[in-house]
């Protein structure tokens, strides 16, 4: 008997989006899921990640949250401080996130999140990973998508699938080709910002009580200055303090988009933050010479569509974002969960009908594009507010910060109770379940 779960699914990329997508389809009972990844392994950078309740809800359903939670920190508040003085502009208490939204807001190590998803995938016999294998091109988007893939040390080969989910990141080959077929260009956008990512070990912080207090707290701290900020929080059972910054991009400004990361100079990093307070200086000074790494922060102009034929884009491939709202990976994982929910609803007698598949993917786009676009805009907006220099706008911002969210809003949008309510209460899978039929009928 025909069964939609017999569809052959190809996932491109084993980042957070790809892993989440593969696992979500396996949990829905799909039996043939092949994941192709350029890199030879998961290869996640040494960096932290915030996992907000909206994605924890999804991870919990996928059965991998318990493992990830084991070394995470449940955030109880955020302290937004003037970078130059360490004076607190605002402290937003978040003691009851779990009570309010059913799941906590956590910080953790990227390798924990990726590892939890990957371990979940490995338990599913339906999922096959093909590392060191890159998508070279999409030969056709419909009726059956066909792909050319290339193993690192082997000959190119062709794969046909019923559905291709391209979670191939900001530099997505699939997106470029999809847009070209649709007569538009892929237009990446320079944000003018770059980020340092730093991890400090407990042992290195042990002799500094002020630093240890940060590591032992359940707070996220953001130090803000003109055109720059640093956000920091504990990860790995509070054995590591993770710092991530945003500053004007000077080192990448002249380069092409071939590479987005570079070994940075410690002296240059210290210079960028030279007028930040002694506490920040002491932390930056702990970074070993030669271990400063800088990321170029890029986004993409809004896409006309995320879907073509039986191919859909997922995660950073379709909605890359500045990190200021801490929702990029969360959105990518949610995308996969929504796709799995929707595709599982395709009636068996229509599972090989290209029009039904395309319309179903369009439902995914209808559900996700307005939401993700709003979050991408909000992240950019929050960055502009956080990076204000002296003047009336900054005075107004600091006055709003002083009200400590009592009005239901603070200028740092990730910490803002009204924004949290909008994002954290969103149950994307339930929304997909409840709206699939109605939205499908509109297409
Ligand atoms: C400084 C910083 C801080 C951040 N903080 C947070 C945070 O706290 N919370 C949060 O939710 N998000 C955060 N993000 C965003 C988050 O990291 C990304 O949005 C998320 O990782 C995107 O996942 P993805 O799977 O879509 O893309 P990627 O992680 O880029 O994965 C794409 C994968 O596809 C593979 N690939 C690419 N091309 C091909 C090809 N042709 N063939 C085969 N494989 C291919 C790549 O090797 C890669 O493994 C942050 C980002 C930055 C830069």
From TrEMBL:
<feature type="transmembrane region" description="Helical">
    <location>
        <begin position="7"/>
        <end position="26"/>
    </location>
</feature>
<feature type="domain" description="FAD-binding">
    <location>
        <begin position="8"/>
        <end position="345"/>
    </location>
</feature>
<protein>
    <recommendedName>
        <fullName>FAD-binding domain-containing protein</fullName>
    </recommendedName>
</protein>
<dbReference type="GO" id="GO:0004497">
    <property type="term" value="F:monooxygenase activity"/>
</dbReference>
<comment type="similarity">
    <text>Belongs to the paxM FAD-dependent monooxygenase family.</text>
</comment>
<dbReference type="InterPro" id="IPR002938">
    <property type="entry name" value="FAD-bd"/>
</dbReference>
<dbReference type="GO" id="GO:0071949">
    <property type="term" value="F:FAD binding"/>
</dbReference>
<keyword id="KW-0503">Monooxygenase</keyword>
<dbReference type="InterPro" id="IPR050493">
    <property type="entry name" value="FAD-dep_Monooxygenase_BioMet"/>
</dbReference>
<keyword id="KW-0472">Membrane</keyword>
<keyword id="KW-0812">Transmembrane</keyword>
<dbReference type="InterPro" id="IPR036188">
    <property type="entry name" value="FAD/NAD-bd_sf"/>
</dbReference>
<keyword id="KW-0285">Flavoprotein</keyword>
<keyword id="KW-1133">Transmembrane helix</keyword>
<keyword id="KW-0560">Oxidoreductase</keyword>
<dbReference type="Pfam" id="PF01494">
    <property type="entry name" value="FAD_binding_3"/>
</dbReference>
<keyword id="KW-0274">FAD</keyword>
